[in-house]
Amino acid sequence: MAGLDLGSRTTKLVVLEQGRVAAFKIIDTGPDMAARARGLLEGCEPARIVATGYGRHLAAASFADDVITEITAYARGAAHLFADCRTVIDVGGQDSKVIALDDRGGFRSF
After folding, report:
1. Which of 9, 13, 17, 19 would suit a FRET pair with 47, their CA atoms being 20 to 30 Å apart?
2. What 3-state DSSP class applies to 13?
3. Are 11 and 5 in contact (CB under 8 A)?
4. What is the C-alpha separation between 36 and 29, in angstroms, rounded?
5. Measured at the alpha carbon of residue 69, what is the angle toward residues 67 and 73, in degrees to the nearest 5?
């Protein structure tokens, strides 16, 4: 499985194998974010690609299997990596978010 975050400033790729991070790449997004994201996938053949971020719908239109919001991605990632986490702070290229998680690591508010 691969996760792509197509952000306004950077595009990130994380490849998971058996629930563990097998690869991580980050590049400047540039003017053609879908092409840059596809470039990150070169040499990688994940069974599923999930996109998030500012350009997630561009990815879904051409190569991603599914999209989720950044807030959902942060909540799931934090709960997976840090079960006791209750707050996530994202400082992005165009905005910042503070996300509150519930006792099970689910999204509560932002």
Report:
1. 9
2. strand
3. yes
4. 6
5. 95
User: What pLDDT score does 92 carry?
Assistant: 81
Exposed, middle or buried: residue 43 (CB in 10 Å: 0-12, 13-18, 19+)? exposed
Residues 67, 27: Cα–Cα separation, whole Å: 20
Residue 8, strand partner residues? none
Q: Are 38 and 21 in contact (CB under 8 A)?
A: no
Is residue 106 scored above 90 in pLDDT?
no
Question: How far is Cα 96 from Cα 73, in angstroms, rounded to an integer?
Answer: 15
pTM of structure? 0.86
Are the C-beta atoms of 40 and 3 separated by less than 8 Å? no
Amino acid at 56: R
Q: Where are the beta strands (DSSP E) in the chain?
A: 2-6, 10-17, 20-28, 49-52, 66-67, 87-91, 96-101, 107-109
Partners of residue 26 on adjacent β-strands: 12
Structure tokens at 98: 């503070």
